[in-house]
Specification:
The structure is a single chain. By secondary structure, the protein is an alpha+beta fold. It contains six helices and twelve strands. A hairpin with a 3-residue loop joins strand 8 and strand 9. It starts with a helix and ends in a 7-residue tail after the last strand. The structure holds zinc ion. Zinc ion binds next to loops.
Length: about 300
C-alpha cells in the first residue's frame, strides 16, 4: 500500500504530464470507482475541463480543473429534494479526488499503447495521450467535488494537519499525545490525529526517536515528544527526497510497484531478526490487529 511519501511521488510525476491539458473525454470501466456518481454525470462535469494543478491532502491526490461554464450541482448538499445550482461563475473550479488505496496507479499512455489490465478510468487528453487509472484490487476511489467544497469533503475534512504544514508543530503533537491513552503506534496511525504515517513510517519514526511503540501516548515526556516530532518530519522528508525512492514512472505499466523502491530505506520495518543498524540487537516484531509492529528492544526500551 502506498504511504504518503509514495503518494507525493505520484503527485510530482503527474504534474508535468497533465497540468495544462484539457480533458476531451472520460471512459469509466468500473462504475464502483466513482460510485455513487453515475459515469454520465462524471463525464459531463469533467469533459472540456483544463487541468490546472495536481496536489495532495494526506494520501488523497487532488487533480484541479477549471471549466469556463458554471455547472449544475446539488445532489450531495441538497436536503430539500429540489435541484440547487451554484452561482454562475466564469471559472468553475473542480477537484478530482483520488485515493489509490492498495494497488491504484496512474499511467500516462500514448494513443496507440495497449490498455493494461485493470484499466478502470481513462482520461483522453488534448495532446493525444491518455491518463489511465488502473487498480488490480479495486479499492481505489475517485470523487469529483467543486473546489469550494473540498475542505468539507468527507475523508478530507477529518484529516490532521499536513506534516510539512505550519500547523504540525511539536506543541500540536504534545497536545495530541497528552489527550490519548492509546499506544503511540496506534495513535500515530490515526490520520485524524497525526497525518502522514502508515505502518511503515510509524515504525521508522519511532525507531529514529528511540521511543517504544507500545508506550501510552499521554505518558511521553516533552523532550521525547520533540524528538518524535522531528523524527516524523525526518523520516517523511527523507523518503520523499531520497533519490533511491523516486521511481514512479507513469509511462511504464509494470515499471513500479509501491514499496519496492523504498525498502532500502527502511531500518526496522520488515527486518525482524536482523541486527539493528545502531546497536546490533535483533529487531523484534509483534502482530496485533493484523498489523505488524517492528522495533529494536535495546534502542527503544520504553
Ligand atoms: Zn538498536
Amino acid at each position: 500500500m502506498p504511504e504518503l511519501p509514495e503518494v507525493e511521488h505520484v503527485v510530482r510525476a503527474l504534474r508535468p504530464v497533465v497540468v495544462g491539458r484539457r480533458v476531451l473525454a472520460i471512459e469509466i470501466k468500473l462504475s464502483k470507482l466513482i460510485a455513487p456518481t453515475a459515469s454520465s454525470l462524471f463525464n459531463r462535469k469533467l469533459k472540456g475541463g483544463t487541468i490546472t494543478g495536481v496536489s495532495r491532502r494526506g494520501k488523497y491526490i487532488l487533480i484541479e480543473l477549471a471549466r469556463k461554464r458554471a455547472l449544475p450541482y446539488g445532489r450531495a448538499s441538497d436536503t430539500s429534494g429540489a435541484r440547487e445550482y451554484q452561482k454562475p461563475a466564469r471559472q468553475q473550479g473542480l477537484v478530482l479526488i483520488t485515493h489509490l488505496r492498495m494497488t491504484g496507479k496512474f499511467l500516462s499512455l500514448a494513443a496507440d499503447d495497449p490498455l493494461p489490465k485493470h484499466a478502470h478510468a481513462i482520461f483522453y487528453l488534448d495532446n493525444d495521450r491518455r491518463l489511465v487509472f488502473c487498480d488490480q484490487r479495486q479499492f481505489g476511489v475517485m470523487k469529483l467535488v467543486s473546489r469550494t467544497r473540498l475542505a468539507k469533503t468527507k475523508g478530507i475534512s477529518e484529516l490532521a494537519p499536513e506534516p510539512f504544514g505550519e500547523d504540525f508543530t511539536s506543541s500540536y503533537l504534545k497536545e495530541t499525545l497528552s489527550r490519548s491513552r492509546r499506544t503511540l503506534k496506534t495513535l500515530l496511525l490515526d490520520q485524524t490525529k497525526v497525518l502522514g504515517l502508515g505502518n511503515i513510517y510509524a515504525a521508522e519514526a519511532l525507531f529514529r526517536a528511540g521511543v517504544n511503540p507500545f508506550k501510552i501516548a499521554a505518558t511521553l515526556s516533552s523532550k521525547r515528544t520533540e524528538r518524535l516530532h522531528q523524527a516524523i518530519l525526518d523520516v517523511l522528508s527523507d523518503a520523499i527526497t531520497d533519490s533511491s525512492t523516486s521511481r514512479v514512472n507513469l509511462e511504464q505499466p509494470n515499471g513500479f510497484s509501491y514499496g519496492e523502491a523504498f525498502e532500502r530505506f527502511w531500518q526496522v520495518y520488515e527486518r525482524e531478526g536482523e541486527p539493528c543498524v545502531n546497536c546490533g540487537a535483533r529487531i523484534k516484531r509483534v502482530t496485533h490487529g493484523g498489523r505488524s509492529t517492528y522495533w529494536c528492544p535495546r534502542c527503544q526500551p520504553r
